[in-house]
Known about the structure:
CATH superfamily of the largest domain: predicted glycosyltransferase like domains
CATH architecture of the largest domain: Beta Barrel
Number of domains: 2
CATH topology of the largest domain: Thrombin, subunit H
Radius of gyration: 19 Å
Number of strands: 17
Shape: globular
Structural class: alpha+beta
Largest sheet: 6 strands, antiparallel, barrel
Amino acid sequence: MRTKEIPLKIELFSNDEENDYLVSNPKEIVSILQTVVERKSRVALYYNEGNSMVLTLILAAGENGVWVDAASNPLDNRHIERSKRIIFVTTHNQAKVQFIATDVMLGIYEDAPAFSLALPSKLLRLQRRDYYRLVTPDIDALKCIIRPVPGQTHIQHEVTVMDISIGGVALVCEASGIELQPGMVYEHCQIELPEIGKLEASIEVKNAFEITDRNGRVKRRAGCVFVKPDGKTTMLLQRYVAHMQQRQARNTKD
């Protein structure tokens, strides 16, 4: 049975919200992380104040600490080792898991470079409908048309949509494309939703960082929100997400 992929994005909470998802029992933390190890679940490692990220794996977890596979780029590893705050995001039984390390050390685990860190004293395990985001397929991925210069609609960039929800989109920018910067607002962006219709909305870039995949390829990802979407935009998004959820459910049964 195929499971839905959960975007490995950092979630921010108030203290009251955080308490609702907090896991602080060491045995439960070990159990969760060991399941992540056994299933070889992808792990996003954020460093450089959350502005840079690499995809990795947790290799081992126990009461004495955690081992995490090193990045393929030695420069990334140096920056990670020097970071004072590293955020890990992964999944456990279709829930997002997030925890922080303040000190990691590059060493060797089973004859390969890996980071060692203490077992986290707490982690967040999130599972609620508000966090659902639809991950778009690599083949025939959605495209977002952005017109960066107001009044000059002939100047446009086509950017790949990594995931989409009723609240916003994550966009992947190639090195030669538009460089989306946090705080920028782009009006009249368009996304063609297959079998649903064309969505037009303003987007605001909330964060942007580089992603290094397991093959060493570097891309820039931008997390964006829809700015005051109207009723038509919200309806199109709801219909598209529901349509794709139904399709994924049918594929899972096949």
